[in-house]
Transcription elongation factor GreA (Treponema primitia), 897 residues
Amino acid sequence: MSEALLKNVQEMLNEEKWTRATLSNYSTNQFKELDVLLQEARDARAYDELKKLCDEHLVHTKNSIIALYLSGMIALSRQLIDDSALINLVTIFVDNHKWNIVKYLCERILDHGESKFALRTLSECYKNDNEEEAIYGIWERLVKVDYEEADLAKSLAEYYEKQARLEEAVDFYKKALHRYINKGLFTNVREIWTKLIEYCKDDIDFFLHVQKKIAKNISKEKAVLLLNDVYVFCKAKDDIDTAISICKIILEYDERDEPARKEITECFRKKYADHSQLEEYIRISNLATKYRNVHEAITDFEKHIAFDKGNYVFHRTWGIGRIAKVQGDEIVIDFAKKREHSMGLKMAVNALQTISKNHIWVLKATKKKDELHDKVKDDPEWALKTVIKSFNNTCDIKRIKAEFVPAILSAGEWTTWSSKARDILKANTSFGVSPDNIDTFTVRDRPISIEEKLYNEFKAERNFFDRVATIRSYVAQKDVELDSEYFTEMFAYFTGYLRSKNQLTEQVASYILVKDLIGRYPHLGTGLSLNFPEVFEEIDDVPSLFLNLKDAKLKEEFLHHIQLFVPSWPEIYIKLFPFALSASIINSLKKEGYEDQLVAMTQYCFESYRDHREARDAAVWILKNLKSEPWFERTGLTEERQLIVLIHILNVSYREIENHRETTENRKTNKQVYTILFKDEVLINFIEQGDPDTITRIYTLIDDVKDLDPADKLNLKNRIIQKYPQFKFLGDTEKTVTSRGLLVTMGMYEEKQRQLVHIMDVEVPANSKEIAFALSLGDLRENAEYKAAKEKQDILNSTVAKLKDEIERAQLFDPQTINANRVSFGTKVTLDNESNGAKEEYTILGPWESDPENKIISYLSPFGNAILNKKVGEKFNFAINDEKIAYTVKEISAVSF
């Protein structure tokens, strides 16, 4: 079917070429017929062949109407960036005033997504047809995709203003304002600013945000001019705090602005009208005098004005205090342990920190602990706002935890509470982040939109890939505006990397991200030239670049682009797999019939795992995921060979962890191999099917893995004995212990481990809190609590050291190895005491199990060592307190475990 279709199109192109049909003969019906042909090509999956045919025809006949339309529409449907064919086609009919066809072509382009060119051209069509209402609809769409279009945004605002649709008018006035600022057109900015002051004067955050752009893009002087309008409004409605903030901004731009200095002084007078020392503090700070630096004067005044009766202060030794009275230059303060403490004002300013009555420290000092605990636990939003505001409205999670744990919340309660708190900080628009640090949170006086919140986070991020995640979150918001200044700036950050040659990782990542966004919003691609093969040619080390893409979605898209645009993709995939460990690589190679390459790649990984870490990880991944593939049998890797490689990798990963080399990666590899060998019982299943020689080889390798849990070795050993009761293990002797070893039972080994964990996880942290509390009590010389806590710390440290040493020396006893022919570990022995004629029974175990009252003695004790290795009937003497006792061994039996 596709061959007939292509032949038909070729004939149409030839006929068009030879007949040289005039443009006057074209109507929309011809293009509708071409649309039917495009549908047939799509159904026959012949798009690529059809586009290639048309593009080759355009090389020789650049104005072919049929070829331009077919090639351009296929490019649009494939979301390709190059729209030159359709632009040329539309331009041809615009030049010939064929407006019906122009309108049809523009609407067909817009069927595939917004296009600046198509919208602008369509508006001209409506203008020629005097369709005024339709023009405004097109302008709205155009303003949303053309981020530089300011005049149309202003025209739309005026249109809606006349119709008394003020919400829409304000929205477009704001868009126009931002765009005029970007163009540096202050006259237009001033005109719209005045309009917005009239219609949305309460949106203070908007004006304060915009003035920063004006100061940066136009001038600080112009920003001051506009800020004065907002100041007048704020002062008139008694929003004194905002008025003071505006004055500070003005003075930051121009510290010699005398009217602003005068106004901030008047605002302070209004704010602190009830303060007993207001005029005195204005005087001593020289706030109203011209010769003092205005910023120093403001800082000095704000320090002093906080000192008034009833306010709280903090001293690093005496803690929280409350000002009892202020008399001239003297202040009297009541501290918890130092009532009516008097100090000079100058000293107070330097030595004390003023804090509000809602400061977390004040609440801790004045509220009952249970009451504060319940409030914090039940209302995390209030708790977060309280702590963040307590520390100059900037606080990170670490500081928040320090204030709550353990003073208010327990460590266990913090885990649950902090999870809720993080969700609130992320989603609640009353919280923002510091522009300098993404991990530092602030409380906003006025909530903002989630889009502005994400934009602020984007600006605070310092990591490129964190910004990738943030712009994705922005786009994922419902009804998001892509024509906002927020998105425009974020998108421009990534398009800026497209031209960068020095930051290849960011360039590739930006290409993939931008391409994805353009795929969903085609209008974003206007003016951008994206060519993956050109970008890929710059990459010298593909695996390194892949690893540097710290984003899973970008990695997958990178692989997809290689397959789509790079002819040698199979070779690149094979080279890249050990670093990527991606199922999509395997599936793509398998689907395209590259199984021989998969076999060779697998063999390489199992041959090179000792020398290359990536090959080691790849070998583990392959055994976890590809062992059942039909082509895997062709690798020639026997099950024994697979196990040998896994055991070697297990041993290597243990050594690397011990040597602190790539600890995180090696722990991950170690866990994966351990799971395959032991938890999935691959090793046990193989042992149970193997012959003695094979078992010997495998067990010898396992036994050499010194860091493997002895319990796993013992379990494996027992399973071997169950299958081959007479099996002899290399190195087995009748010796029960090495020079430093400590023979123990499994039960006591696990009990000692539990003891160690309890001390480390429970007793040591509790002791640390005791020491911290004792330190808070003051003088250490007479601090009994501190001395007791430190003594307990010494005991705990000694106990931990002893337990760790014993556990390290412990060797698990295998009950299957009990030899009742001699007295040994795990046997019960009956003795005749020839000195008094009595019978005595003893169980021989280790020092951990020793219980003399119940006749359980350690093989390391003097008596235990004396009877060790004795046989039935054998006599021996043992001295107790200089008295020699004669014994005869009567019976030896194995203890049941």
